[in-house]
Structures are given as C-alpha cells and as structure tokens.
Amino acid sequence: MTTEETAATAKPLPASSAASFSDGSVTTPAERKRAFQILFLCQLAGGMGQTLVYAVMPPIARRLGMSEFETTMIYSLSSFLWIVTSPFWGRRSDVVGRKPIMMIGLLAFAISTTIFATLVLVGLQGWIHVSLLFPMLLVARSIFGGLGSGNGSAAQAYVADRTTRSERASGVASLGAAFGIGTAIGPGVAAAFAVIHVVAPFYAVAILGFVSAGLIWVYLPERMRPTNRVSERQGRKTGLRWYDRRALPWVAISITLSFAQSIVMQLCAFYFIDMLHLKLDDATQMVSVGLMAMAIAALFAQIGLIQRFNLSIQWLLRWGAIITIFSFIGLIAGFSYGILVTALTLSGLGFGLLRPGLQAGASLSVSHRDQGAMAGFIAGTSATGMILTPFIFLNSFIEYNVYERMHQAPFIVGALLVAGILAFALFHPSMRDMQQSADDHEDEEEGIGIQ
Fold it and tell me: Which residues neighbour 219 within 8 Å (Cβ) at sequence distance 6 or greater?
C-alpha cells in the first residue's frame, strides 16, 4: 500500500510489501490503493447491516408479536450456518482466490437483506401471520449465514496476502476499522431512514451490498489463485484443522469473545427497554445512540490507537479485556440512560482492541499458505455467541428463563468470560512466546514482499 491508502483506514505499507505472483506480475500501488478502498466499502456495508438490525429489529419484533427468543433465533440459525460454512469458504479462497468468495458473500448479504426487509414489510401490513412469517424470516437470514460467511474470511486473507508479519496487526485492524465505521453509522442510518419507514434502513444497506459486489467483480486486483502462488514454494496445499495446536487456542478465544460480545449486542436493546421502561416508539432512537457510541469507541480503538501506535498483540488482548470487564460492570450497575450509554462506549473500546488482537494473533500463528483456513476458523467461531446467547438466556421453552428472572445475569456471565480472556493473555504460553514481528526471510520464503 502507499501513503494515500490511509483513506481506506489501512496503515501505509512499504513498497516491498507489494503482492507478487509466480508469473512475475506485481500489484501496482494504484491497484493496491483501489483494492483497499473497495474492501473498506465492503466492510462498511457489513458493519451497517449488523448494528441497524440490532437497533431496529427488537421494536419491530414486539409489534409483530414475536418473543425475544424468536427474535434472537433469527440471528442464531444464520450464525450456526456461518460457523459451519466459514471454514469451507476460507479454504476455498486459498484455492480459487479471495475475489470470487468475497463477491459471493456480498451478493448473499444484499439478497438476504432485501428478502428479509420485504418479509418484515409484509408482516407489518398483516398480510402474513407471525406463525408463518417467523420461519420465512429464518430462511431469509440463513441465505446470509450460509453464503455470506466467506466475505470476512476472504477479505482478511486478502490483507494477509499483502502485508508482512510485522504489519499484520495493523493490517487486519484496518478491516476492523472499516467495519467499525459501518457499525458507527449503522444506528444513525437506522434512525434516519426509520423516519421514512421502519424497513427503509434494510433496503439502504442492501443496495450498498449490491454496489460493493459489483466493485469487487470489476475492480479488485487478483492475479493468481493463492494456493498456486504459494504451493510452488511450499509443495503442498493447505491442511490446517481447527484442533491443530497452532489454531486451537485462538479458536477457543474466538468462541469466548464471540459469546461475550453477543451478550451485549443481542440483549442491549431489550435491556434498555426493560431497565429504563422505554416506549417502543422511543426505543429505536435511544438504543441507536448507545450502539453508535459503542461503534465510535471501537473505531477509535482501531484507527486512533492501533494504527497510530502499532500496539502489540499482548497489549491489545490485556487492556482490551480490562476495559471490557469494566464495561460489563457498568451495564450491571447502570440504572440510568447515561450510565448505560457510557458502559456501551467502554464495551466498544474494549472489543475494538480485543478483536484485532485475536485476528492478528491467529494470523501470525500460522504460515502464509494457511491464512485462508485460519481466517475461516476465526470468522466462523466469531458467530458462536449468536447461537449460545438466546438458548442460554432467552429460551422461553424452559421453565427458567434467565433473562426474565434477572436482567443483569447475562452481563455477569460476560464479565467472567472476558476475565478468562485476560487470564489467557497474561499466562498462556502461546502469548508469552508470541512475536508480532518476524525475520524478513520468513516473509520472503512465503512470497510476501518479493518483487
């Protein structure tokens, strides 16, 4: 990347970090700039799509007569498919290239969001009973879970292809920053378009998804399939498995982090409504403010801190965990709107440090030829919390509904989970031995930075 690429929130890369190929071709600075701008837009769309759903859907669900459990189950089935298919798409990107997998994921996101919004609109008009609408919404969201899961893992692997090991943390953080901008403006988009109609935000981000897929198809540079490029030097194809000793610790941390983060994301809207006794008409606006503050804090962590100071993986995980624990304490003790918004802001800052630390640590734990597979494992397990949260805390089919009995209980669990991440960052051998940078010859052997 060149200096101008900071517009795409990525740290400038030296000229030697240009992607090179076995046919002697090299991605030009102009192509790299364009590529990271396109990836920026793609992650922006994904971030907007996530936070506006969490802000808009709970009030819609209550108008439709759907329970909290049914609402979160819509996300959970999609998340299950995301977990199952992400490793597959990650490995496929190692074989067929990053570009086609990203395009498939974006098209699935756009189509799924369009169908979902249309079904919600029909349901609000009373044309479909909720008993039929609920499974239809499940299917619509599942399109994104099954086919859209490749976008994130392929994008992360694309960046890993074009960064040296010493640049990896800031490189993957640049993707998180783009996603963070999307999550920051997502609630604002939801609030603005909701004035037109409650489903208008869904259609807006769907259009952005279609545009992003078109840009990937026409403009994203990619010369050769990654496996072909690397296997000529390595002599074998990717064979990484999730239970490999290099991958397993990071998979476990990814699951833990996903569970903790989903507690905040899935329950904060219901928590605001119940703790502050909000009217449903006011809930979207007030929850959107909290989610926007959370997203802006995450963006500050990823751009203002990580990109500026090139923080170590150990620092990111340790301080990210400490800040996030304090955010959960604020949610548990918060009985006013100001305290709850402050707690969400701390949560955004903490998770904004933890997620890039996890992604960079996982990326550095494997060789270049396994980047797609590892990115698929992390992308897949990052959705596990979306499944666990509703079943554990909101299941209305069991006698003991944890959230209804004690609204603070999920956040207590979240604090304990993040405490486990802190213990990992302080004491686990893989963290003590983790080096954010590597010798230059290691990058050269893997085909990074060779002109």
Answer: 34, 35, 38
The residue assigned the tokens 């209305």 is: 396
Distance CA 106, CA 113 (A): 11
- The whole-angstrom separation of Cα 167 and Cα 158 is 14
38's tokens: 């396109």
- Distance of alpha carbon 93 from alpha carbon 86, whole angstroms: 11
Q: Are 171 and 159 in contact (CB under 8 A)?
A: yes
Nearest Cα to Cα of residue 320 among 246, 422, 244, 414? 422
pLDDT per residue as tens digits for the range 237-296: 446 787 888 888 999 999 999 899 989 988 888 888 888 887 776 777 788 788 888 878
Domains of the chain with CATH codes = 25-230+238-433 (1.20.1250.20)
The H or E element spanning position 55 is helix 29-64
284 within 8 A of 59, measured Cβ to Cβ? yes
pLDDT, tens digit, 9 for 90 and up, residues 136-188: 999 998 998 888 888 888 888 888 777 766 666 667 767 766 776 676 677 67
> Radius of gyration of the chain from Cα atoms?
21
